[in-house]
Amino acid sequence: MKTNKSYSKRIRVTRNGKLVARAKGQNHFNAKQSGGQRRAKRRSVTLNLSAKVRARFLPGTGAK
After folding, report:
1. Which domain holds residue 11?
2. I want to staple 18 with a disulfide (CB 3.0 to 4.6 A). Which of 2, 14, 31, 35 is the partner?
C-alpha cells in the first residue's frame, strides 16, 4: 500500500516513531484570541492515531 503523501506532508515522524503536527486553528481569525492562546498554537502537537489509520495513511514511514 502506498503512503498518502498529502497526509504525510502535514506530519512529522520522530526518531521514536511518534507523530508530530502543527496545532490546528491558526490560519486566520486569531486576533480575538488571547496572546497565550496564540502562543500555545505555535507549538507542535503529538497525534494519537489508531493502528488502522496509521496502516492506511502511513504504511512506509515507521510510525508507531
Report:
1. 5-57
2. 14
17 exposure class (CB count in 10 Å sphere: 0-12, 13-18, 19+): exposed
Contact criterion met (CB below 8 Å) for 43 and 20? no
Confirm whether 62 is domain-assigned.
no
30 lies in some domain: yes
- CA 55/CA 27 separation, integer angstroms: 29
Query: Is this structure's pTM higher than 0.90?
Result: no
Please check whether residue 63 lies inside any domain of the structure.
no
**Cell numbers standing for residue 32:** 480575538
